[in-house]
Structures are given as C-alpha cells and as structure tokens.
Amino acid sequence: MSMSKTYHPLVKGLLDGERSLADLPPELRAEAEEAERLLGAVDRTPVSLSPALDARVMAAVRRRAASPVRRAWRRLVEPREFELRLRIRPWIAWGGALAVAAATALVVLGRPSVIPAGGPTPTRVAARDSIYVRFVLYAPGAKRVAVAGTFNQWDQNAAPLVPAGTSGIWTTTLALPVGQHQYAFVVDGERWVADPGAPAVDDGFGRRNSVVAVTAHAGRAL
Amino acid sequence: MKHAALVLLLVTAIAVPLGAQSDVAARLAGRVPPEVARAVAEIAAGVAARGLPVEPLVQKAVEGGAKGVPSDRVIAAVRALAARLDEAAGALRAAGLSNPDADLVDGTAYALSQGLSAAQVRDLARAIHAPYDAATTLRVAATLSALGVPPEQTVQLVEGVIQAGGTPDDVLDLPSEVEAGMAHGRSAAQAAQGLGRGHATGTPGGRPLVPPGQAKKHKP
Known about the structure:
The complex is a heterodimer. Chain A is of the alpha+beta class. Helices cover 30% and strands 25% of the residues of chain A. Chain A has helices at 9-15, 29-40, 51-66, 68-77, 90-110; strands at residues 121-127, 130-138, 145-149, 162-163, 169-177, 179-187, 191-193, 200-202, 208-214, 219-220. In chain A, the strands form two sheets. In chain A, strands 3, 6, 7, 8, 9 and 10 form a six-stranded antiparallel beta sheet that branches. In chain A, strands 1-2-5-4 form a four-stranded antiparallel beta sheet, with no helix packed on it. In chain A, a hairpin with a 3-residue loop joins strand 6 (179-187) and strand 7 (191-193). The longest helix of chain A is centred in the middle third of the chain and has 21 residues, at 90-110. Chain B is mainly alpha-helical. Chain B folds into two domains: 17-113; 119-206. Chain B is 72% helix and 0% strand. The longest helix of chain B has 27 residues, at 2-28. Classes of the chains: A alpha+beta, B mainly alpha. The A-B interface holds A 148, 150, 153-156, 179-180, 184, 190, 192, 199-207, 211, 213, 215, 217-218, 220-222 and B 59-60, 62-69, 73-74, 77, 80-81, 113-114, 136, 139-140, 142-143, 146-147, 168-169, 172-173, 175-176, 179.
C-alpha cells in the first residue's frame, strides 16, 4: 500500500503558493482543502542539531584520514604530480641510451623465435652453449607429462610439458647444452615413454631411451 | 725416501677409492634404494681406483632409480657399465690415447654397449681428429649401430665422412639421414650405404649437388 498521494497540478500550485483557493475550479476545491489540511498538520518547528554532532562527524573524518593503511593505499593509487629535473652531459645520455638499446637487443636475440613442430626440435642459440629444443608428445588422456633425461638428472619434476588445449598434444621447450642427450617422457608420473619422433637406444634396463644431439648450430634427433 | 714414496702411494691408492665411495653414496642417498647406493658406491670405488670416471655410474644408477627399475637390475646395469668403462679405457689406450677425459671414456663405453667391438672403437678413435669431438663422434657411431647399421659399416661411414672433410655437423647428421632413408623403406645398411657413397663424392644423401638453374647444360 502506498502512503503517497498525487494531487492535481493546480492543487500543487496552490500548495506551492502560486495561486489561491479561489483560483481553482470548484471540482478541485475539496482536494485542495484536504491538501491544505494535511499541510497544516505538519510540524514546522525548527529542528536544532546537537552542538556535539559537528564534532563527532569531524572526528570520524579525521580518523579515516589518519588510517596508515588508507594513506598507503592512496599513495599507491591516487595520481600525483612529479617534477624531475636532470642535469647531465649529452654524451652520458647518448651512452645510456645505447647501452639500453644493446641490452634490449641481447634479450630479444636470446629468445626462441618460431619453433617448428615435431619431435625434439631445435631452434636457436639460447646462450653460448645452449640451444632451445622443443619436445612434443601426443598423449591424449594424460593428466601429466614431463621429459626427463641426462640433461636434468632424470628428474621427472624438472621439465613438465604443457597441454596444447584439448588436442592431446603436450609440449615444452628447454635450453639444452651442446652435446648428445638421452631422454624419455614420463606420463602421469609412472609411465616412461620413448619419443616416437626420435631414434631410441637400449637404456641398459631393458627399456628404450630417445636420443637428441645438440650442436652449436642446431639440435638434431639422432 | 723410498719408504716415504711407497707410503704416499699406498695412502693415495686407499684414499681415492674411499673418497669416491663416500661421495657416490652421498649423491645417491634418497635417489635410489639404500642397497643400490651401497652396491654402486663399492663398484665406483673400484672404478675410481683404476683411474676411470665414476660419473657415468652415478648417472646410470640415478636413471634406474628415477624409472623405478628393480634394485638388482640397476646394480647389474651399473656393473656392466663399469666393465665397459674398463674396456673403453683399454681401447683408447690402444688407439694411443693414454689419458682420455671422462667424457671420452663414457662415449667410448656407450659405443661398446651398442655393438661396436673394442678393435672398431680403437680404429675409429684413431681416425678422429680436430675439429671433430671424439666423444660425440663415438656416440654417433653408437647410435648408428643402435639403428641397425652393421658395426663395420658404421665405422666405415663415420671414417668416410671425416676423410672426405665433412663438418662435425655432417657427422652428427648421419643417424638422422639413416633414419630418413629407413623411412623410405630401405634397411639401415642400405641407407648407410647410400650415405657412404654420397659423402665419398661430396654429395650427402647420394644426391648430386646441382646449383639452382644448372641442371641443364648450357647451350653454346
């Protein structure tokens, strides 16, 4: 149930003091009188606020402003103006810029670029004596796949493969030192699987290890 | 003075194996069952006493432990590897390499494990020279043998590439080239034979090297 009542606009004008009761048409007079009666019942006594209210409000505001957590947060997020004045010689500026450019170039060149698909795939030099090699295994339904070998002390936790969506293909890219390496994939932490895309040799325990050779120019699945 | 030298020699002969034994046991602790660690440490002590590298033994034991291979099988594999290290050192000595490094001994042992004889390894070791890395070249030979190339043919193929002035990468490429030939239905021996002819004529893979646009003779 609604407690509000909508009066005729002419009645509203009366209440606003824009017109008198006599200005209203006869059919609206009863409504206007009711509205005036209601308005007259309103307590128009001036409200006086407690003098302590201002003090309480200001104390609350100061408490919020003084909170160290809040201040720290504001420092972090609120935009501030800084003025930085540098006075350096031009050759220092140019030297610094060149050093930054050289460092950026080194970082960019050290990263693998396009990695071709399939088997243990070589890419490019990662460091002086390392080559990025991509390992790929098709293992649909596997929950975990890792590659373990002579390059990581046969540690099955050292080099996990990452699933490529839901395709069942697992991949990882490792920087391997130059030389020949033996390895195997570990599926779900218990099944050791030779790489079907690389040659395999007897591991001495009656199983097979896959073999990859890494040279200074590229890696090769031997 | 003679007595002092003898004592020093004796102390060294005892200390080296003991040091190797404790070091190996410490490295294997927690990675293989205790009985495997003990057995491998003993085998390693003997190997170290003969001046041979113990690292391949440690790695083989670690591999077996990681794969969950039964203890007796791991110990047997390590023992067999120790014997091959001895044989490898002998083959290298016969090739004139009296003080080979650990990697070369390991690579030679790997070649022996894949079917090459001591005499074949010796011959191959003699043929290898800079810029070829001896250990890597022997591992390539081992892999060729593992692929099914007869050991004698393996030695001829690798030696042939070296004599023809192929690059170290050409040597490294041999197994993958053999594999490529096998993928086309040839046997390992047939694939290796084709490669041997190709490298002898400077045309790896048996294909004549013809520059682009030069396949036809120019008309006068």
